[in-house]
Fold Bacterial bifunctional deaminase-reductase C-terminal domain-containing protein.
Amino acid sequence: MRKIVAFDHMTLDGYVSSGKGMGFEWTNRAYDEELSAYAQHIQEDIDLPVYGRETYLGMSGYWSTQPTAESTPTERAHAEWVNAVDKIVVSTTLESADWNNTRLVRGNLAEEFGRLKEQPGGTIAIYASPKLVHSFLALGLIDEFRIVLHPVVIGGGTPLFPTGTDLELTLEESRSFAAGATYLRYSVA
């Protein structure tokens, strides 16, 4: 059975989006080449990225125009992967999903993703998209969290875990980086 993971960058005070611009401008301080290279390991088993509407619009707007001559080797590798892989955007307001190999899912997440978990394949990963993560949490669909914890406090925004979330987690992997970020992989107990 495939698993569904939430892959998020998070502030020390628990937020994954600042609510300003794309919402993750605060990742710049600790997102260095070491972490960028390690992200390939974090994502190596993922074969189906999933985005909420806001994240999808930002990611497709950026990655669909990549790689460029200025791209680093890591950025180039990610651009080639994300532009080629099948993707899902979950939205009730988008009319279409125009990014290469993207399918639009409008509703009934439990049925749709329950069916996808039963199909052969690798890991299904929700990238950023905190509101979508909240929906999946409410439905009990998340099997694992992959969190890059950043050494910043922003004082507000959208948290990874909404008020009332009650989960027991098991630490599966961790790694610290010189720029101050820490990777944490937890399975849902």
